[in-house]
Amino acid sequence: MNYKEFGKTGKKVSVIGFGGMRFPTAGKEGEYDYDYCSEMIHEANRLGINYFDTAPFYNNDQSEDIFGNAIRNMPGDFFISTKCSSSDAYEMRKSLERSLRRLNVEKINFFHIWCVMDLDDYNRRMASGGAYDELVRAKSEGLVEHICISTHCTGDEISHIASEQKFDGITLGYNILNYKFRQLGIKAAHANHTAVVTMNPLGGGLLTSNSSRFNYIMDKGDDSIFESALKFNASHEEITVVLTGMDSIEHVRSNATNCAVIPGYAEKTKSRLLAYSNPEFDSLCTGCRYCEPCPYGVPVSKFMLAFNRKTLGDDNIMKNNIKMHWRINPELVHKCTECGACEKRCTQHLPIIERLKIIGTVYD
Ligand code: SF4
Ligand code: SF4
Questions:
Q1: Is the C-beta atom of 206 inside 6 A of ligand 2?
Q2: pLDDT tens per residue, range 149-159
Q3: Using an 8 Å Cβ cutoff, are 80 and 102 in contact?
């Protein structure tokens, strides 16, 4: 296992982080086998993973409880990260106290101002007497060790946030497909001695589910796109932790063994990508669903995931995906009133309205 310094905190964290949003259900939706989930977490820790990331609402709002159950007898050292998306001080305190109770810990090592979408949103969280100030107070009381931020902002917006030096760590979505969109941000964070935790290294599963389409990503000697994608993120000197959601003990083991830091690997991959990469590839939907709900009932993420097939070059596969995979009526695109609510929330800043119109024309 490779370890990196977490910004200027003095902590050494494993380069692979355990993303706690994909615990497997135990047969029924919303039911989890807490013993098996504990085994997964303990196995990760045994293999050297010490960064564990959770949040309220993950896994039907049980992810923090699952971790709380596992870490009471965790064999090795570990750090816990969790989050709150409120801009209000009272709500922030309530959420923090609930996380402490659920996780069975006296302090949260890395507490995130969660899911900041743009600079207006950032300013709301940072407003005097609001969420950020409450976290500063909690830190002075010893309830929070390091204040971090998780964001879906663009690279230059992240640069602005990093330049203010209010956070010990920044968590953001970054992978081979979208790196151009955020690389300015990770460089600024690194220059400001702020740790960078990347989520979504597999592009929402797009890379692994289209492995033949993306096989040019693999370097000589790589056994899979999965391995190449993890090594790509891990090998950036600006990136501290690569978070991946884990859904089985086997998955934990393969993450732990494939996420290696190889000096020069990221730069070498980027120069190879220049020869192949379609500029559209950094604007693929990741399926995160932050755009929903649409007040007019448009199943936005399903249409945008299907649109990925068009971006990857095939209208017929997109149509098939809408009909056979998602089983949605393509006429629903016409319910869009262009209110713009989904675009404001889209983590990849996709032109959703325009894409819905294009989907409509494919059926004309
Ligand atoms: S822009 Fe269209 S799809 Fe998006 S939320 Fe508004 S009505 Fe729904
Ligand atoms: S459209 Fe944007 S917010 Fe919605 S699922 Fe796709 S990437 Fe996520």
A1: no
A2: 999 888 889 99
A3: no
